[in-house]
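Researcher: Predict the fold of Protein kinase domain-containing protein.
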Amino acid sequence: MEDMGFLRMLMQLTWVGVLLSEILAATEVAAQLPRPNCSDRCGDVQIPFPFGITEGCYLNKDFGLKCNHSSGVLTTGNLIVTNISIREGQMDILMYVAFQCFNQSGELQDSNRPSLTVPTYTISNTQNVFVAVGCDTYAHLTGFQNSLPFTMGCISFCQNITNVVGQSCSGIGCCQVEIPPGLKNFTLKAYSYYSHKAIWSFNPCSYAFVVKKDRFSFSSGYLSSLKDNKTLPMVLDWAIGNETCDKSNSVCGRNSECYEPDSGYGYRCRCEAGYDGNPYLPHGCQDIKQCEDHKLNQCKIPKTCVDREGNYTCSCPKWYRGDGRKDGTGCELKLILVSVLAIGLGIGFIVVPVCSSLWLYLIVRQRKLIKRRERFFQQNGGLYLSQILSRQENSAGTTTIFSAEELKKASKNYDEKLIIGEGGFGTVYKGFLSDNRIVAIKKSKVVDKNQIEQFINEVVILSQINHRNVVKLLGCCLETEVPLLVYEFISNGTLFQYIHDESTGCTVSWETRLRIATEAAEALSYLHSTASPPIIHRDVKPSNILLDASYTAKVSDFGASRLVPLDKAQVATIVQGTLGYLDPEYLQTSRFTEKSDVYSFGVVLVELLTGKTALQSFEMPEEETSLTMYFLSSLKEDKLFDVLEKHLVNEGNTVQLGKVANLAKRCLSVRGEDRPTMNEVATELEDLRKTVKHSCVNTDSMS
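Model: Structure tokens for Protein kinase domain-containing protein follow.
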């Protein structure tokens, strides 16, 4: 009897141990929100990793927050944080309101221009709206989208407070607009046209703010009292870094996966199906005991549920079959063999005709697809191209004719994640051919059917260009309605990104800039002088100069190029190109010459010298809006070194900088005949390269 009592007590202790281990496991999952030994909350706000309030508790300084423990207020910069969501990748904050307030005489009395400049955060376009309030108001939201400057605005007017209708926010006293995705490093600004003089009694201020949807309802009372609302709720999206999942060593922990948010910046982590917790910690995602949760347990008979690592299984009673799940096949009673055969025969009489019809339909559909591709092939000049290629079998650089199916497979059915460029010319996809070559596949605009022969001749000639500084055209596909062009893939982005990106632009040395300029000039000189027939690029700009793995310049995008007949010096065409780079003589005459490319290249030289974009923000002084005008004016006033990028001057290459500046000035001459040729530009730059210092002063290493 005593032995039986001892066994009973031992079993009870065992069950207590099991229960305690389960409780500890559940507690461990909940405790995985912060890093070990780090505070998990500030006031009522929970602080999950990668965020933290003390050094060593956050991923990097962008995720460092501050906590006022006496008031229980959590802040990022000077903004109050009210919630952080790991699952959604979002942060709720209280954002300041921008305003301009005037006295009764129309004099500016008070103003505020709040901003947020943390690269980790973007404005959530799904959770917020941009609002302007006032009867004499226009508002701006300026920031960056895809590393490029961006501005949007909203205008609101009314003459009497009786004009304001209910809660409407459609331009009378209140204006509301949607926000595009991917905006970061932004500033809010509110302005007035007439200093609120006529409406001061009921509306002395202009307001602008970003607010969480459904958290702001406009009323006429806000025209006079909104200044009292210092902050309003707003939602930020956050992500890790700027790299995509396939290019980064992600911090995602075990049992988690990396994914890229819709904002287009960085990546996030999430627990795999069947796991829950914090995916940013090494062991943050823990197995969910799905059988114990009646919401997750989808077994028809809950007691048959068996937990597995990251999943669970269900079973059926004896004489039944199936997966036992409510969301699956469930459990069905097993039938005797005769019944099964009878049902099978009955189904067979139905399935066979259906399958036959489906088979015939697929054959007809496939034939239509083949005929459609053949029609496009002929329509796009495929037969003419085949005749040309048959005469070039033994020549180097022969054009390849790709099939539509081959390029569809290479681009994973034109997956949006493989888009590497978009614009007026069309869309460019990264592709992987079966022979392991990486290519760029360009979906061009529709080719004029009356110029098919010219289009094919241009494709053949461009594919035969073999210059180390020109992007190689490998071939084309003519089986689609819009012809596809296939180029070699260049891995390091564009010159525009290289010199204007905030994180890298200011560190690019003068020696590197001069080398890239020389290589691009040599490529254009080759197109103008050596190619037969000569080729005018017609859209020379930093975003059309690509950089390969060793940062060698590659001139690209011949979508606007024209072949120059040997007996003609000019090409008359519809005015097109990119503002800021267009030849003024071309704008007046609509005649494009090789000297027009020289002008555009002159603008590129100025960007390399100054680190500024061709067109500046309209909010800057008028004389600085056009980079070329600002540069030429500074050169005339002997203020060259005031506009050059500071670190280039500090490198000690002032003589070369002055010579390149004078070369750019000649390229930007108003009359084309006063400009040098691209061959002369390339020769002069190459001579300057030979004199550039080959050692750069590094002040950090000398200190």
